[in-house]
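Please decode residue identities from the backbone states below.
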């Protein structure tokens, strides 16, 4: 017994000496563990991103963006709080990753083999092509051989590898990189004529064209490439990778990922330069008179969405009239107007009040099984082609094993209501389903333009006020973007 006690004492002393020797390397001493343990013990998922219309925007209505919502759901899945840090350049994001100041990058970054030497990539959640852009009105390059002006891309971006590959075929191709401006900043510089060319991803470009319509696509520089998150590569540590795989598997199976794709990407569509320019001009010239009415009567929806609906209906013309007899800003039928106590359909306030009320009634009629944030799209389809035909579209979706409560599924069936082989199986028969589809998609695009354009105007006004304040105090004024421009 005594010998056993002595052995335990000797073993204890040996263990203590070993612990002291290994103290600096013991994970729990440094507050470390695998990547997932660190996140959970900290209680925070630290995410770095760039400010852009698609990935992350801190708007007055709160944080928005595809990557933001995905990251928020991932943080909820892990049971931790999401902490987002905005960056101005791609390199600064990766610097944070290198210095353990962030857990992952969620910013619409293209999968890049060169990055895999130092980092790991998460699952693909959508795809983009890289495109060369120029300013509308300038000569359009058909290939890199036609690029004659200044071409600038962001340091650390995947665009550099694309240009290096292109230079093997086009040896006269030259470009410069900047570590001061983000890809979004460079796209803005092309649009306002300060830069001849840059590269961007197809989705971001399509979204930015809704606010910066002079941004034009010359050609695709790559095929479609996956977009992923990035995180640190740690030896023998697959904890964060396993968590991401399980998370994306869950949201793919339960439809969450498809819903987010529809919300942020589903209405990108084709770009119409003339229509977008006309709309943006109307925001400046016509909207200020009607805006107080949209703000007053928008009830269950954002006033800017109500304004987008009205523009699709009448281009904000109170005297608008269609061959079928609908009239006014919201293009109400005579019978609908009577039921809403609208005496004069050409009176802007009465029309907007009536249209908003009618839309509210339609939303109230929507089946409870439809998610709250999608009821508006079903209601708009009903507003355009009739409530009964919207029910037929849901019925047709169910017949084809789709989800009748998912707008992404139902909108695909709307054009089928034009076709006899499909509408013959419905309750209410033929409907102008293609028109209803385009109607809703156009409204969503107008809303996107309106929100982005108003935010940009507010930003410019704030910058102007700041410059005026500097002048008033006698300080030299320097435009940061001008100073940093390549």
């Amino acid at each position: 017994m005594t010998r056993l006690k002595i052995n335990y004492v000797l073993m204890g002393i040996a263990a203590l000496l070993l612990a002291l020797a290994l103290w600096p390397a013991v994970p729990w001493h440094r507050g470390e563990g695998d990547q997932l343990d660190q996140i959970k013990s900290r209680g925070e998922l630290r995410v770095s991103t760039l400010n852009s219309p698609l990935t992350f925007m801190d708007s007055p209505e709160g944080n928005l963006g595809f990557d933001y919502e995905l990251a928020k759901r991932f943080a909820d899945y892990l049971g931790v709080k999401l902490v987002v840090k905005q960056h101005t350049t791609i390199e600064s994001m990766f610097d944070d990753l290198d210095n353990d100041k962030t857990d992952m990058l969620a910013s619409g970054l293209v999968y890049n083999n060169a990055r895999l030497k130092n980092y790991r990539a998460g699952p693909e959640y959508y795809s983009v092509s890289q495109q060369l852009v120029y300013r509308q009105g300038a000569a359009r390059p058909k290939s890199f051989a036609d690029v004659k002006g200044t071409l600038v891309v962001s340091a650390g971006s995947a665009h550099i590898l694309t240009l290096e590959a292109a230079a093997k075929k086009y040896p006269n191709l030259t470009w410069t990189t900047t570590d001061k401006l983000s890809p979004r900043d460079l796209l803005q510089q092309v649009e306002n004529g300060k830069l001849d060319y840059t590269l961007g991803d197809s989705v971001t470009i399509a979204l930015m064209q809704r606010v910066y319509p002079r941004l034009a696509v010359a050609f695709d520089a790559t095929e479609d490439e996956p977009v992923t998150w990035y995180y640190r590569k740690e030896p023998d540590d697959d904890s964060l990778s396993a968590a991401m795989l399980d998370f994306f598997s869950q949201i793919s199976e339960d439809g969450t990922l498809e819903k987010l794709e529809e919300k942020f990407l589903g209405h990108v569509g084709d770009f119409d330069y003339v229509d977008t320019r006309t709309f943006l001009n109307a925001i400046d010239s016509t909207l200020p008179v009607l805006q107080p009415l949209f703000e007053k009567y928008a009830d269950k929806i954002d006033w800017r969405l109500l304004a987008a609906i009205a523009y699709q209906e009448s281009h904000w013309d109170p005297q608008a009239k269609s061959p079928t007899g609908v009239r006014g800003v919201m293009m109400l039928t005579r019978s609908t107007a009577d039921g809403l106590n609208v005496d004069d359909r050409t009176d802007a306030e009465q029309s907007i009040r009536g249209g908003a009320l009618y839309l509210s009634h339609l939303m109230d009629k929507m089946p409870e099984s439809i998610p709250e944030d999608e009821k508006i799209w079903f209601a708009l389809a009903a507003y355009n082609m009739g409530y009964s035909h919207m029910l037929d579209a849901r019925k047709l979706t169910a017949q084809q094993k789709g989800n009748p409560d998912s707008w992404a599924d139902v909108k695909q069936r709307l054009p089928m209501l034009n076709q006899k082989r499909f509408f013959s199986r419905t309750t209410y028969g033929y409907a102008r389903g293609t028109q209803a589809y385009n109607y809703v998609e156009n409204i969503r695009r107008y809303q996107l333009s309106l929100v982005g354009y108003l935010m940009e105007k507010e930003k410019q006004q704030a910058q102007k006020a700041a410059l005026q304040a500097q002048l008033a105090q006698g300080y030299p004024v320097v435009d940061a973007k001008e100073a940093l421009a390549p």
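Observation: The longest helix spans residues 433-472.
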